């Protein structure tokens, strides 16, 4: 099939590359010429395992092209995916301006019957809005159908997720239109669910809000565990083996971040309020998540009395491992709180340092984890990169001035850390202190 993908961010680029890999002819367009230039020179705009190789292979085979010419891409394609950003406004409402401008461009270049597929995460009813905008611009005699096909990939495993999704949701206005999408995806041999457009839009929001709520739930349990003398890591293992609950998204820590959970929970809450319904459970989810970084820094402060003048090493800046994405990363909130309380911060992350540098945060960037720990009073692990799981604690202890390890993702065994002469502080677990600390 001939496919156009509008927007070459995490979702658009991965989607385009995967459709090309599956044998389609794909044109990926973006309004940022520098992004398209980079891609044409085989430089990825962000890090995602396996993506570069897939892009290279499909460009060489002539199935994948990059362009800034939306008109050409629209005219030469039968299916057009919209994969542009849907960031939040200050109010929590979704900013749909990128979707609206993509729809207008599709309408202006609409030269034949096409199926428009919205992959961006959007409030319920946006499918109708997209159809109306295209209708305003397109020749009246040509038919148009708009489908909602939300994306569930996770950054850090985006290529693998897109090739191996749990399910494919197709919100289509009729069976015939749904069949076209089924034809496109059938090669993946994954469960497909056909729904109305509005239900598909809601499935995406409800899924993300549910996962975010699971994280905030276990974080609330963790905070209680600290008070009552339980260990949340034992609790989550005991809970997660119950098949009705499951082990995923059940790890306590310094909170969820990224470009999806924070904005999608806010947006769903906003939609519910605008219909006069409200979702109190989401208010709780969001409030708990906002407090996790604060509680973590409070814990640090209670150990030291005051953070004024303290030097803190931070390991991990991206919102999760295997990505360089720092949008809404808990690490950045924690660094901000540390600064406000008078601490100085030196950092290391395997992938996200350039993005943090560009954001203008005032920290010292270090060569590796031991460089970031050198001379510090405490080390904080805020992203569970695999290389941090293999920390050499004796080396860490040797280079530090103090002896406190704060495990913001509960990835270490407290007793092992303690054996190497460091006090251990996790989330929802009892601290294991050195005798004289
Ligand atoms: P992104 O910000 O990384 O990328 C969006 C891209 O669209 C940018 O490169 C931008 O320049 C381009 N763009 C905007 N308007 C355009 C236009 N009119 N014409 C051409 N290009 C245009 O966004 P993303 O992270 O890929 O997310 C895209 C959508 O998918 C969002 O709605 C998001 O919520 C959703 N989503 C994201 C993820 C994720 O993990 N990032 C997962 C599932 C769903």
Overall description:
- The protein is α/β, with parallel strands linked by helices and 437 residues long.
- It has two domains: 2-195, 3-Layer(aba) Sandwich (Rossmann fold), CATH 3.40.50; 197-437, Rossmann fold.
- It is 45% helix and 14% strand.
- It contains 18 helices and 14 strands.
- The protein has helices at residues 10-21, 33-40, 51-60, 70-75, 97-108, 126-137, 158-163, 175-185, 197-228, 232-240, 261-274, 280-304, 330-340, 353-359, 369-373, 386-389, 393-399, 414-419, and strands at residues 2-6, 25-29, 64-67, 79-82, 114-118, 144-148, 168-171, 192-195, 311-315, 344-348, 364-365, 378-381, 404-407, 423-425.
- The chain has a six-stranded parallel sheet with strand order 3-2-1-4-5-6, sandwiched between helices.
- Helix 5 links the parallel strand 4 and strand 5 (114-118).
- The longest helix is centred in the middle third of the chain and has 32 residues, at 197-228.
- The termini are far apart.
- 47% of the residues are buried.
- The mean pLDDT is 97.
- Nicotinamide-adenine-dinucleotide is lined by residues 6-12, 29-32, 35, 70, 83-86, 98, 101-102, 105, 120-121, 151, 153, 155, 259-260.
First and last CA, distance:
65 Å
- Compute the number of strand runs: 14
**Averaging pLDDT over every residue, what do you get?**
97
Shape: elongated
Query: Number of helical segments?
Result: 18
According to CATH, the homologous superfamily of the largest domain is NAD(P)-binding Rossmann-like Domain
Structural class: alpha/beta
Number of domains: 2
